[in-house]
Design goal:
homodimer, Rossmann fold, 3 domains, six-stranded parallel β-sheet, elongated, DNA-binding
Chain lengths: 337, 337
DNA sequence: CTGAAAGCGCTTACAG
DNA sequence: CTGAAAGCGCTTACAG
């Protein structure tokens, strides 16, 4: 039995055709109950394991979703994965996850791999550096729908699910204003990312709505590494009048910024308030954390992205044309402590 | 081209046989260079994407490793995944990851799924509750090698890679002793886990070697949830003479224990020292953390597990018998601050 | 160097 | 209700 028992073995033993066995195992209505029972009994006894590779091949469907994310050490993405998996499980779909590690070359390689493996659909968080969308372009042609997630591509012809970036940024900034801060800095994300621009815009709008002048010196772009955040913070701290409140693109940046203060301006740690995107599980262990987070509801976003993808997968079958969808998830402010 | 171009389409266009095209694409030595060039050129022009499902089916090999881990929010496992992926990539293998969420029922379902999908090998971290190893038993029979990881099963007939649990526990406990602690508690892992027993043993040995009597009241088992850690800590704090140093099964437990102190005995936070397994990336953000960690080198352990698995996969092909392997990874002590 | 043929394990119209 | 047959896209001995 090393070779694995097949449908044919069962058919032979029971003096049936393979078609009958196949149908019996798949609960086809045309098969009589006694036959079904006999087949299932033997399949059980012989420990029959269906060969999914054969099934996928035959059906040209893999019942598998591909997920491409930058990094699994970022809890935001893990929560999103869990959300997507939940929806996939409901539809009896598998999920395969791959990490791009923020490298567009990896990303391209992974997309190719997913294509070769004929996933039925793809959920993608592009890398922070992804500019060229061509790897994703021909996916539609070969019938693999893609939903982008969290980081919308610049090109609006793709479907995506994203947070209400501008609204969230506005809320976070306003919270800092309401806490009495007048000089509010912004550690913005990589300038090439669309999300960065949106969050910057929300920040500006908040200032404007509260009659605070915009000071370009109070905006520093970082690339999400610790070094670049340290550098940006050192620029702020060199100013004659450094910010007392800082809105960050992402709270991992807030954490790095706080580390910077701990090391270089320990007296300022409790003097500067941070607020940014992302309410992370690890916060509960921290003594020094952002005063507020924009809850991105990544689990729900993951669910939403998967739901949208399944909608496309199903439409794919029926070959109808459809409009591009951009879903925005509402963000709420969470105050810490 | 919606249907996807196949080898047959290419053969037709070039007036060749499918065998020739297949061999050309696979760089078979018997094919002439001009033929190879023509085939590859057209494959490129037509954007040919090999159907891996068909290949896997034909070759009865999926070039895929299955990884089953309890939870991706635990950075220990993520690092291990990354290590395993690195080795897999070298061998041109894919990795599919699934989370059991510490539920043996999920685990069984996932193993079944992996079997149906005919992964070439499996790396598994069993759940903390897994007692019944039967889901893993027939994997060998159907030719799917398994390597267990981090949490060795009780049954020694399985292959596994694990940390030097006893040695690590000894080191951590001795560090606390050398810091001057005489009353050293142990927050041990679930009693049903083999690792818990090994670490408990290391703790006992350290006490003995340093002539400190063993007090059963200083050992509390937790199930890795916050609640159970809080409960265990409250037991300790009720003692007439609570421990001043605590060796924990896992540093996530230390973090929960420190949270407990912050909430209920803020004066004790700096009075009680913790040391435990696991040096985690998130530590860098913490003000209150364990004084020392046992570095489990999870990335390297992941690599090692994958290496071992590939060894088995290759032997599988040659059908030779082999001895069970238990690999122990040396642990080093990392002092914080 | 190239090609004809068999076959991997399954599903699904179609016929009976 | 059951079965014979075709075929999903590929690879690989084998023959020439």
């Amino acid at each position: 039995m090393k070779k694995g028992v097949t449908i044919k073995d069962i058919a032979l033993k029971l003096n049936m055709s393979v078609s009958t066995v196949s149908k019996a195992l798949n609960n086809d209505l045309s098969i009589s109950t006694p036959t079904k029972d006999r087949v299932k009994q033997l399949a059980d006894d012989w420990n029959y394991i269906p060969n999914e590779a054969a099934r996928h091949f035959k059906l040209s469907k893999t019942f598998t979703l591909g997920l491409i994310i930058p990094d699994m050490l970022d809890q935001f993405f893990v929560l999103a994965i869990n959300g997507a998996e939940k929806i996939a499980a409901k539809e009896k779909y598998n999920v395969i996850i791959s990490q791009s590690h923020e490298d567009p070359a990896n990303e391209e390689r992974i997309v190719d791999l997913m294509k070769r493996n004929r996933v039925d659909g793809l959920i993608v968080v592009i890398t922070k550096k992804t500019q060229d969308m061509s790897p994703f372009l021909n996916l539609k042609n070969i019938g693999i729908p893609v939903v982008f997630f969290a980081r919308p591509p610049k090109d609006d012809s793709f479907d995506y699910v994203t947070a209400d970036n501008e609204g969230g940024a506005l809320k976070a900034t306003e919270y800092l204003i309401n806490q009495g801060h007048q000089r509010i800095g912004h550690l913005m994300g990589p300038e090439c990312m669309a999300v960065s621009q949106l969050r910057l815009q929300g920040y500006k709008t908040a200032l404007q709505m509260n009659n605070i002048g915009f000071d370009p010196g109070l905006v520093q772009a970082v690339d999400l590494t610790e070094e670049s955040t340290f550098l940006a913070m050192s620029q702020f701290m060199k100013m004659p009048s450094p910010p007392t409140g800082i809105f960050t693109f992402k709270n991992y940046i807030s954490l790095d910024a706080i580390e910077y203060l701990k090391k270089n301006f320990p007296g300022m740690v409790n003097k500067i308030d941070f607020a940014g995107f992302g309410n992370l599980p690890l916060f509960r262990y921290l003594d020094h954390k952002p005063v507020a987070s924009i809850e991105e509801s990544s689990y729900e976003m993951g669910e939403e992205a998967a739901r949208l993808l399944f909608q496309f997968i199903k439409e794919e079958d029926s070959m109808t044309m459809r409009a591009v969808q951009h879903i925005q998830i509402h963000c709420k402010l969470v105050v810490h402590k």
